[in-house]
Design a protein that fits this description.
The chain is α/β, with parallel strands linked by helices and 210 residues long. The chain has a single domain, classed as 3-Layer(aba) Sandwich (Rossmann fold). The chain is 49% helix and 13% strand. It has 9 helices and 5 strands. It has a 5-stranded parallel beta sheet, with helices on both faces. α3 runs antiparallel to α5 and α5 packs across α8. The structure holds 2'-deoxyguanosine-5'-monophosphate (DGP) and sodium ion (2 copies). The site of one sodium ion has 4 residues, from loops.
């Protein structure tokens, strides 16, 4: 990589089963096929000690107060920030399945205060783009059974979507909202072209924080 050229921080957000995992995989494959150094990441990152507590919570083998699990999800992002920063500065583009916006959306959907939820995310590296895959929650359940994890309930996902919508309007400068009911190929084509336009633009911009 040439000196001073950084990679982009690209995030996928949306409700459970909105197609984030498929779209992020396709985007990583596309960028790699063009010779762009790219790595996939996923939050929550369940392998660290904090990640293992989050995993126990999500699989319902552990209960924690809403505030406590909120801060653990945030800490799980913070514990990976040095690695994220280093990769970006090396010129690697990161394609990340969920970030701070899931943190706010899932906790605010439980009734926690929106600004309180956002506070621990302040200072994390700001994404260059967030691809928000929006689908009606009843449509998402028709895609197949929700799994067994804690948040995979239609009514709750509807409230999560409302908070995502609110964040999307506040952070409109770098949020890209998509109708997730489109075909996988159409969605991938749009996301791919936005990303290819974005990479050269951000390569010389300093990293910013949320
Ligand atoms: P995933 O492995 O990406 O499917 O995420 C697992 C579940 O955790 C999913 O229902 C979304 C939820 N989630 C992801 N990030 C956060 C977060 O920061 N806070 C909360 N409360 N939930 C989150
Ligand atoms: Na999930
Ligand atoms: Na994830």
């Amino acid at each position: 990589m040439s000196a001073g050229k950084r990679g982009a921080l690209i995030i996928f957000e949306g409700c459970d089963r909105s197609g984030k995992t498929t779209q992020s995989r396709l985007l990583v494959e596309l960028l790699k096929s063009k010779g762009i150094p790219t790595l996939p990441m996923n939050f929550p990152e369940r392998s660290s000690s904090i990640g293992q507590v989050i995993n126990s919570y999500l699989t319902n083998s552990k209960d924690l107060p809403d505030e406590v699990i909120h801060l653990m999800f945030s800490a799980n992002r913070w514990e990976h920030m040095n690695q994220v920063k280093q990769k970006l500065l090396e010129g690697t583009t990161l394609v990340v399945d969920r970030y701070s916006f899931s943190g706010v959306a899932y906790s605010a959907a439980k009734g926690l205060d929106f600004d309180w939820c956002y506070a621990p995310e302040r200072g994390l590296i700001k994404p260059d783009a967030v691809f928000y895959l929006r689908a009606p929650s009843n449509d998402l359940t028709n895609r197949g059974q929700y799994g067994e994890e804690r948040y995979e309930k239609v009514e709750f996902q509807g409230r999560v979507a409302e908070v995502f919508d609110r964040i999307c309007s506040k952070e409109a400068s770098y949020f890209h909202k998509f109708d997730a009911t489109q075909s996988v190929e159409d969605l991938h084509a749009q996301i791919g072209s936005i990303t290819e336009e974005l990479l050269p633009k951000v390569a010389t911009q300093p990293l910013d924080t949320l």
